[in-house]
Design a protein that fits this description.
This protein has a single domain, classed as Alpha/Beta hydrolase fold, catalytic domain (Rossmann fold, 3-Layer(aba) Sandwich). It has 13 helices and 8 strands. α1 packs parallel to α13, α2 packs across α3 and α4 packs antiparallel against α9.
């Protein structure tokens, strides 16, 4: 673990695996931190140099004052790659991380090799919904949004089966700085990557959760249809599919990243 100052903020970063190997960057969802990738990092680090970071406004990274944009969050990734002297990398992003991945695919194609977009869409939710959530956390803090998070993130069966995991994720959300979370909500409110997705040229895998109420299987299919050659994999999970179905998520991602372009 280390803290790196770049692009006007401090970022909490973790690197695993041998530096001489190809790099894969893992980008967390809204309301989580880099620990959400623990299971995948352990698998990927056997074959890759794995870089994880807490998105601006999350975890131990700076909650700088807003406004934020998806472009700003994408440029944070580019600044991180520059700092680490990494010319090109694979990128795996879930939900908000997947929106960042779409921006990178469209605006920094020379920095990407392969792209995994999990439980995401080119436009997530409505501007009104995100603005209302931002206003609520600024006024009331994180407790209420954390209390309702299991129903957005996981199936009821997983919540009943894994209360410790669910409680840990809620604790992470509850301890976020409200301003950082709210600023990310506002970035998502303004984000519509529909045109950007059409220009993504990197080999792309889109992952959906069969029970995801936030970004549906239909959203995943629509996103994949916009990206030339993209494939879709559906996992038996809700929104945080990499946590609810960790082995199947890794089984989909690892061979995709290892595949060689024709």
């Amino acid at each position: 673990m280390t803290t790196i100052s770049l692009n006007g903020a401090r970022f909490h970063v973790r690197c695993d695996g041998e530096r001489s190997r190809p790099t894969v960057v893992l980008s967390n969802s809204l309301g989580t931190d880099l620990s959400m990738w623990d299971a995948q990092a352990a698998v990927l680090a056997t074959r890759f140099h794995v870089v994880r970071y807490d998105t601006r406004g999350h975890g131990a990274s700076s909650a700088t004052p807003g406004p934020y944009t998806i472009e700003l969050l994408g440029r944070d990734v580019l600044a991180l790659l520059d700092h680490l002297d990494i010319e090109r990398a694979h990128f795996v992003g879930l939900s908000m991380g997947g929106v960042i991945g779409q921006w990178l695919g469209a605006h920094a194609p020379d920095r990407l090799d392969r792209l995994v977009l999990a439980n995401t869409a080119s436009k997530i939710g409505t501007p009104e919904g995100w603005q209302a959530r931002a206003a609520a956390v600024r006024a009331e803090g994180m407790n209420e949004i954390a209390a309702g998070s299991p129903g957005r993130w996981f199936t009821p069966e997983f919540v009943a089966r894994q209360p410790v995991v669910v409680g840990s994720m809620q604790k992470t959300l509850r301890t976020l700085v409200p301003e950082g979370y709210a600023a990310c909500c506002e970035a998502l409110a303004a984000a519509d990557l529909t045109q950007d997705a059409r220009s993504v040229a990197a080999p792309t895998l889109v992952i959906a959760g069969s029970a995801d109420p936030v970004t549906t299987v239909a959203d995943a299919q629509l996103l994949a249809a916009a990206i030339a050659g993209a494939a879709v994999v559906t996992l038996p999970a809700s929104h945080l599919s990499n946590i609810e179905a960790p082995d199947r998520f890794s089984d989909a991602v690892l061979p995709f990243l290892l595949a060689q372009a024709d």
